């Protein structure tokens, strides 16, 4: 794993810290998160990765006609995994119809490997839309999405691995063996990844993973990966939100243990 980890790091181009202005981020949550990441040199560990290479090409943009987007991962033929809140229309109080959604993999400044329409959505039955600032809003925040065409020949897939919560890193540790990759709102036309981020533990009451990956709005639904002993990447959770606290904030992810039984049942 170490050799491949170093190769990944060597292949990436690290971004230079730049000042953030409100005009660069019209969304208030995005602006505040950018201030936290870019306010101090070295805080932002995201790097641009090649969206045509393994495993990145299995991660794509899930676009809606509302002009918004989230991140989704190909986990099986004609099936994606994303966050349930990405499918929720706050204005109507209902889920978006499949015909208003579109998936693009390998997206890079207008170029892409694969694109298709959505035929059905399957949000977690127990998911309930709540205040985005509440930890409870992220409970069961996962969804399967069915595609018209099969992306696997072009993108491959990333299999979810049953992840109950180990190994964890100590809360004061910023580095770990995990990788988060998504289409952040401030870099929406390229895929970025935080290689080597930490998962600190599980919030037991709501069964949510607490992580330190540099995810922003737009990264919702993005995979958190780990490299397995067979040198293949496995999906252990999806990023769904961020809670600000006195120590700088916590990323929230739904671990695969929350939905892997439903995925197997649907196969």
Using brief descriptors, characterize the structure shown:
Thrombin, subunit H, 2 domains, 9-stranded antiparallel sheet, 267 residues, mainly beta
Question: Please, could you describe this protein's structure?
Answer:
With 267 residues, the protein is mostly beta strands. It folds into 2 domains: 2-52 and 159-258, Beta Barrel (Thrombin, subunit H); 56-155, Thrombin, subunit H. It contains 4 helices and 17 strands. A 9-stranded antiparallel beta sheet has the order 1-2-12-11-15-16-17-14-13, with helices on one face. A hairpin with a 4-residue loop joins strand 13 (199-203) and strand 14 (208-211). The longest helix has 11 residues, at 28-38. The model is unreliable at 1-26 (pLDDT under 50).
SSE topology:
Blueprint: H1 2-11, E1 13-14, H2 28-38, E2 47-48, E3 59-64, E4 69-76, E5 79-82, E6 88-89, E7 94-95, E8 101-105, E9 114-123, E10 143-147, H3 152-155, E11 175-182, E12 192-197, E13 199-203, E14 208-211, E15 223-227, E16 233-243, E17 250-255, H4 260-266
Antiparallel strand pairs: 1-2, 2-12, 3-4, 3-8, 4-5, 5-10, 6-7, 8-9, 9-10, 11-12, 11-15, 13-14, 14-17, 15-16, 16-17
* Total domain count: 2
Helical amount:
10-25%
Strand order of the largest sheet: 1-2-12-11-15-16-17-14-13
CATH topology (fold) name of the largest domain: Thrombin, subunit H
What is the CATH architecture descriptor of the largest domain?
A: Beta Barrel
**Helix/strand order:** HEHEEEEEEEEEHEEEEEEEH
Under CATH at level 1, the class of the largest domain stands as: Mainly Beta
Which stretches are poorly predicted, pLDDT < 50 over at least 5 residues? Answer: 1-26
Which shape, going by the Cα principal axes?
A: globular
User: Roughly how many Å apart are the termini?
Assistant: 30 Å
CATH superfamily of the largest domain: Trypsin-like serine proteases
The chain-level mean pLDDT equals: 84
Biggest sheet layout: 9 strands, antiparallel
Rg (C-alpha, Å) = 17 Å
């Amino acid at each position: 794993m170490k050799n491949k980890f170093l190769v990944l790091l060597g292949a990436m181009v690290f971004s230079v810290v730049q000042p953030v202005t409100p005009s660069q981020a019209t969304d208030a949550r995005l602006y505040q998160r950018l201030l936290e990441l870019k306010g101090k040199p070295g805080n932002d560990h995201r790097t641009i990765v090649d969206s045509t290479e393994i495993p990145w090409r299995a991660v794509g943009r899930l676009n809606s006609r509302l002009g918004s987007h989230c991140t989704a991962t190909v986990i099986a033929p004609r099936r994606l995994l994303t966050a349930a809140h990405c499918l929720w229309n706050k204005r109507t109080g209902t889920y978006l119809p499949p015909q208003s959604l579109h998936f693009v993999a390998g997206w890079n400044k207008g170029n892409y490997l694969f694109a298709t329409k959505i035929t059905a959505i399957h949000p977690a039955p127990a998911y309930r839309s709540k205040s985005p600032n509440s930890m409870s809003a992220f409970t069961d925040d996962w969804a399967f999405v069915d595609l018209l065409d099969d992306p696997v020949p072009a993108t491959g897939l990333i299999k979810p691995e049953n992840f109950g919560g180990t190994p964890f890193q100590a809360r004061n540790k910023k580095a770990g063996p995990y990788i988060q990759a998504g289409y952040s709102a401030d870099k929406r036309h390229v895929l970025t990844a935080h290689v080597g981020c930490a998962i600190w533990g599980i919030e037991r009451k709501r069964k949510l993973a607490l992580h330190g990956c540099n995810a922003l709005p737009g990264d919702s639904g993005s995979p958190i990966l780990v490299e397995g002993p067979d040198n293949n990447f496995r999906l252990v959770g999806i990023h769904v939100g961020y809670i600000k606290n006195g120590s700088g904030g916590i990323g929230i992810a739904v671990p695969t243990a929350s939905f892997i039984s439903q995925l197997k049942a649907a196969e």
